[in-house]
Amino acid sequence: MAIAWMFSVRGGSGLAPGAFIMGFWGLLMLGVGLLTPDYAVTGTGAVAIFLACLAMAIGSALVPIKKRTSYVPRWRNHPVESGNGHFLLSACVVGSLMGLAAMVVYTIKAGFSLSSLMSLRDVLTIAHYYSYSRYNIPGYREPGLAVFLTSFMYWAAFCGGARFALGGTRMQRILSLTCFVPATGITLLLTTRTDFLEVAVMWIAGYLALSAMLTGGRWRLLTRKRVSGAMMAAAAAVIMYVVGGMFRSGRVGVSHVAASLPNLFSAFLGSVPAFSAWIGRAWDAPVPLGLGSSTLAGPLGLLFSIKRAHFSPMIVGHGNINSAPTTVYTLFREVIYDYSLPGALIILILFGFMGGLAWRGALSRRWLGVAILTAFYLVIMTSFVGSPFAYTTILVGWIMFAVTLFLERGLWKKRRI
């Protein structure tokens, strides 16, 4: 955390790429130590994670910092100029409606009518259908139209966070949150639980990136409202995970909450000890390079015939209540798998450098800087899981978000805020 503070001093903000990287992973490692002390993190693993984060932070520090824009301490109390945020707000509504359409497709493809969504028994049956198909039918794939429509839901998530940062009326802020409606519905139907969490992280990434631009990088996290908001978001994530597990098993009750704890801890924190155990014994093992088959599997799969990388499950937390298998080994293993250990360090430095350029561009009020900074925050906040852009739908949603930012021409003019 001390190193995070040093990078925040250099960047002038805790949102500066180097500070954000070190701060996020510092808190994550602290969470592993406090909440799951039985999850062993080896010295080799801890050093590897530290060096990976430091490589990204150093990469971001290679970009010279320009003078920041003017700052109004209570900028959120200033009304948004007429027309500003119009495209972002429209994207929230349209994208959320398309997400609801995806729910309709999932329901119909499972052999149910729309009225079934009003019955808890039918919803549980649909959830069981998709859960069983996903894990027991070889080569099963979700309905293509529904998967395509989720790209618009992700678009709405990015735009919703950015639009919320602009402030405005209460109704505008409520509409900025509409992406969570289809995200919740799809999570309950598919029981994957990642849909809600991905949408939440995309929303936060858009919010942070535009907030950094609006405040000239002086956005403050440690305020009463934002800390309470972060606590509510964490509680919502836990609730969605537990409820999603209930729908997956088809059992709703208090007893299932206790049964969900091992998977809950392994899902959010198990990747760190899993990566630690793997790097400690296989860091120098000769393996063929994946060359993007893990970090960019989806987009590359549209262009080339590649096989998505899958890692063997590992048990974390042996011999205790939190013992559970995980196949998630953080973004760092995926990068090492694709580009080798030396290549991974180069990729991480370049990624940090890209984040530094995006930070400078955002402070200069350039739409492309804000768009790339949003992607940067998304990658960092999901790095304990893997690469978000391994999925084509997320990449498409981000591209549509970047185009929407470009259309918001009023935000990029040189004016006081």
Task: Explain this structure.
The structure is a single chain. The chain is mainly alpha-helical and 417 residues long. It has one domain (81-269, 285-339, 357-412). Helix content is 66%, strand content 1%. It is built from 16 helices and two strands. A two-stranded antiparallel ribbon has the order 1-2. A hairpin with a 7-residue loop joins strand 1 (314-316) and strand 2 (324-326). Helix 2 packs parallel to helix 15, helix 3 packs parallel to helix 14 (330-363) and helix 14 (330-363) packs antiparallel against helix 15.
pLDDT average, as an integer?
Answer: 82
**Structural class of the helix and strand makeup?**
mainly alpha
**Helix fraction by DSSP (H/I, runs of at least 4):** 55-70%
Widest β-sheet, arrangement of strands? 1-2
Bulk shape: globular
Largest sheet: 2 strands, antiparallel
The tally of beta strands, per DSSP, is 2
So how many helices? 16
Give unreliable regions as ranges. 69-80
Radius of gyration: 21 Å
Please give the alpha-carbon distance between the first and last residues: 32 Å
How many separate domains? 1
β-sheet strand percentage: under 5%
Helix-strand pattern: HHHHHHHHHHHHHEEHHH
